[in-house]
Amino acid sequence: MDDMTKGIKQARRFLVEKKYSKVIHLLTPQIFLYRNNPEFHEILGQACLRSNDFGGAYTYFQRVVNIDPKNTTAKLGIAYILVRRGRTTQALQEWLEVIENDDSNSQAKKGLDLIKSAPEDRDWPEWFSNHPTDFLLPPTGFAWRPIIRVVSAVVGLSVILLGGFWVLTTLQKPREITRAGGEVLLFSSDTQTIGSSGSFSLIFTEAQVEDILNKTIDAFEAYQDNRVRFLINRLQHSNAAEDIKTKTLLLQDHLAPPNFVDPFWYPELREVLNTPNPEQYQGVFTLVSGKVSNVVQLDDRIRFDLLVGYQEQQVLQAVIPVQVFFPVELNGGENVEIIGEISLIESTVTMVGFELTAASIRFTR
């Protein structure tokens, strides 16, 4: 079995076990490798859908349909997202196409019945917020492994109790970096931490550099990749030794973008706006919410302005330009949450000094 097949099988197993964040962690860094694999995008879409990342789910399901136009799972997922947004006509079309290919599909039939029996003025987003809707979701399969693990855990506990307490003590090991790629952070005790050449905007003592390195290890081991990016930036723009800068940069190949499933550290907007050292946020992701404005569809991307804090049209905190490189339907006036990568640009009277490249978009009320 090749590595690609193993990766998809493992992701499928995580999906049926409802470990959606693990699916996203496993698959997101491999998008380019699997770009033409419909099963890959279907699994990732399912994980996003069940994590309430409907923008991400729609993107992945749409990719599946582009590759495999009759894929039932993807069309069920798209229909679910459409009806949540009140676009019942398009949702009906998706369900009808599913039934055309599989006239016994229960999710599609239930979806049709739901819309046909609903009053014309139903507020679908509100209805979905107050009613169970799992019966409309595409199936993921049945998880056998949790049952096996329970049995294994009972057997394992018995072995430990019979074997004695000494088993536990002999298994204890000193702290080490276990995540792949983290070995670059292991420096010898005589490593020089401070450099004297080059230009830098942040000046640290040896103790401060060592502290940042320790925090980087902790964040990397905890899969807090966004914080790792920030800490690497601080070292890159400081008087830290070149060897430290070079090796910590190698971590970037092992970092995944954040998502709406797992809690992640991110800089608050006011920090980015008011810092005297904005370069430490270059390439770091932040989370902002606001109202979509000035949408422009280009050949390879979508551009729009995010009116931060303006959801209720009362207080405008900032106007941030955003670019999106994945397919998503955006309309002016919609309220969204965005996980976006910060790129520094020249500020203007109306625009802040950075723009965001969206990694994920979630529609809000």
UniProtKB/TrEMBL annotation:
Q: Which residues cross the membrane?
A: 147-168
- Keyword Transmembrane helix assigned to the entry: answer is yes
The ranges of the TPR repeats are 38-71
Question: What's one Pfam family the UniProt record gives for this protein?
Answer: TPR_19
Task: List UniProt keywords, sorted A-Z.
Answer: Membrane, TPR repeat, Transmembrane, Transmembrane helix
Q: Which residues form the signal peptide?
A: none
> PROSITE patterns of this UniProt entry?
TPR
In Swiss-Prot or TrEMBL terms, this protein is called: Uncharacterized protein
Q: Which organism is it from?
A: Spirochaeta lutea
The upper taxonomy is:
Bacteria, Pseudomonadati, Spirochaetota, Spirochaetia, Spirochaetales
